[in-house]
Amino acid sequence: MIALAGCRLDLAVDMVVEPDGTGTISVVVTADAELVAAAPTIASELATDDIVAAGWAITEPATTPDGGLTMTLTHNFFSDEEATNLLNSLGPPFNQMSMTRNSSGEDTTTRLSGLLGLSDGFDTFADDDLIAAVGAVPFAEQIAASGATPESSMGVVIRTTLPGEVDGAETNGTELDDGRLEWTVPMDGTILDWRALTTQSPGDDRWWARPLSVVALVALVAWVSFITVFIGYVVWARWQRSRRRPRRSPGPHTDATV
To answer: Is the pTM of this model over 0.85?
Structure first.
């Protein structure tokens, strides 16, 4: 733990919500070169069986340009309830996380809420069951001796892509150039209220519908016009043919007497 005092671990969570409420949560974990040098077997000693059993897809650890390691975990969700469960399964510093979707008339709202941060520093990572099993917060003395703090050792951000228009009064994330909302999770013991609200109108996810309908209408008019001209041509051609056709003269009239 003393050797790791100058190391850093960064965590980035990205949640993409589609217009129908389905989506994906991705977690990118990055250890810097100092951490990899201090713990060179960190990649081979990762225990991920439980994570895979929970449905997460995990990429093999990859080396970063500066000599660190990065690994990505992804999980799809198909409802707001499932997204909520996945967010809460991440554990601290993601607390009381929630995603809800509601419809009123033709509009659908997507709301995010939660608490971001480590209220008890590193101790927040130890739940009551772990403390009861070990008898104390694991590595508490070593961490204290190293001088490491969450603020100096960790960096955590969460980003979301939500359907619809962002309600600025109900959203406290920073809107990025690509439309995502981003929150930097405080690591100094304070707690950040995680809030976002978007409203999705019927046409928000069907921007292509109007131009497609225009093209379809033009095609329909062109087809009807073609059929009308074609039928008119056929009628005119038959009429012309009937005019040019010579009439048959009646044959000689013969009275037959039996």
So the answer is: no
Per-residue HEC secondary structure of 33-83 comes to HHHHHHCCCCCCCCCCHHHHHCCCEECCCEECCCCCEEEEEEEEECCHHHH
Tokens of 77: 């969700």
Model confidence pLDDT, tens digit, residues 184-206: 999 999 999 999 999 998 755 55
Dihedrals phi, psi of 129, to nearest 5 degrees: -65, -40
- Yes or no: say if 143 and 1 are a contact pair by the CB < 8 Å rule: yes
Task: List Cα–Cα distances, 36 to 65, 144, 231, in angstroms.
Answer: 13, 21, 79
AA identity, residue 218 = V
| Residue found by looking up tokens 């008019």 in the block | 221
User: In 10 A of CB 115, how many CB atoms?
Assistant: 15
pLDDT tens column, 140-162: 666 667 677 788 888 999 999 99
